[in-house]
Request: fold
Amino acid sequence: MTFQIGRIFGCGKRVWMDVPPSVQIRGFVGSGLIIFCTTFFFAAAQSVAANVPGGGDTGPAVTLADSGQTLVLANGSLTVTISKPNATVTSLKFKGHEMAQAVYYSMDGSWRYRVPAHCICTVKVATPDMVDVGLKSSGRNERQAFDIEVHYVLRRGATGLYAYAVLTHPADYPATGYGEWRMVWKLSNDLLEKIYVDDGRHWQMPNSYDFQHAQRTPIAEITKLTTGVMAGRYDCKYDYSAEYWNLGCWGHASDVNQIGAWVVLGSHEFFNDGPTKQDLTAASGINHLHFGLDHYNGPGVQVEAGEAWEKFFGPYLLYCNYSAAGGDACWADAQAQAGAEQSAWPYAWLAGSPAYPSAGQRGAISGRFVVNDALKPALNGAGAWVGVAQPPPGGNWQFESKHYQDWVRTDAQGNFMIRHVRPGRYALYAFTDGAVGEFSTNNVVVTAGRTTDLAGVVWNVPHPGGRLAWEIGVPDRTAREFRHGTDYFHGYLWNDFGREFPNPLEYTVGRSRWATDWNYAQAQYRTAGEPAAGPWKWRIHFNLTNVPPGMATLTLAIASAQRAKIDVFVNNEAQVFAQVTPSVQGGNALLREGIHAKYCVESVSLPTGRLKNGDNIITLALNGAGSTDAHVMYDYLSLELP
Reply:
């Protein structure tokens, strides 16, 4: 049966709904708002239809109602209420549960804080299969002179709400910029008791009572729990930071209510700074999505006067699901849903947006990444990251935020296919675990409807020396292989360094184990009872049997540095041999409970006359580490001999 339900006021549309016999419909129209009451007689299911894009593709028609200040979107599975003036979702109802206190967008913080305001509403699509509504906030008179246009899309059968946003800087707007640009999904209190980010971070969370009775700490974002499942432990939003490119989803779920709420990504192309960049994901009662990845040394966006600029963020899915098996099953379903969304990217249903090219308007890049390393002949291109970006001349993809980036992992033979790339001219980059640095080549042209075949992409890994005297760690742009490399995401971990390690730290090549004897961060050394933290020397002991003449090279691959100057001593701690100031610093990864920020490689050339046959010591000391946040996180260290 198909009924004409009624006119949606303010939209000039009639809504048609295909009604199965098992559905009873009662409705009335008043004050411009259509209210539907539906009773479903479907058999109880283990879970909602899932693992197709949107979470379903059958069911009642999608409806839209406009009451002047609010929009209501519904499809029989979700009912979404949107405040038109500020583009905020004020209600998201699923299976009888209120899933949101709010879903909102914001830019920057403090006195620069901005949310969309005085939005103009447009209905881009209104059919029984899909509704796409846009809410545009002018930036002409804002501190951040960008127009913000937020869209919400509800599709037939979907158990999630798609969202996307477009930032526009017309050429006649003044010079401007932003640092933070995000979406926040604030969940209902105590509805979903478990959090899920990755294999190392999924557990039951404290409830609202526990947080109300928690102790404050000198760092505002960190609280110490005194009650509940995490009593005696710290909680902080940074506990759950992660590399977005390694995740397809994150969120919360409940064993009690048997439902989940997830951010699900169909693509990562609109995120800046490449695949190693991390930011906030889920946290207590919140799902974050930081488009600008502004924490851990994000570059922000700067646009000049006279420059026309536009960037399209999304679509992504605010996904709700159900399983009688509870939270873990909901998480597994959300991960499968991410796969379904990625397989459908770019979405065929999103048409008529020039800033979002269709599949036929995009191109691809293929090739095989070959790694030749004279000192590590077993190294190859398997599992490497290969990607394209558009940094300015002399720029770095780690700090590129104005354009789009596309990255993939190679297969076991080093083959790669980067699909759905927007047409343009790119630089191509590649790096892999086990090798310091990266490969790059310019002028890779992507043409709509074509695959650019690069055939063999060969990286001959450079080395300043002829043999490795020793190595500490594995080059992977993180400090993951060192102590605390798998539990770094706990507050005030740095206060324990003085109880866990001696000062100086003594590391002997060939005898010590970097997983236990080398810390993930060199910072201040704090000792209980001492009035202030002190410096912390790290000594590397090694034995040489044959020192050739010439120059040796100490390589320091650095995963994070903050206010760092590294004094290097060679067999004489009375005299500094060299001081290394990492070329990339910032991001506050230690206090923000990270295992890396931005990557750089530094080297120290030293005459082999400073070395000797037998025992040698190279000492690393953080010069003037007078601030709590000062640190260096080493990714990898090596000594190469001529």
Q: What stands out?
A: Residues 1-48 have pLDDT under 50 and may be disordered. The longest helix spans residues 327-343. The helical segments are 208-212, 327-343, 497-500, 514-517. The domain at 359-460 is CATH 2.60.40.1120 (Immunoglobulin-like).
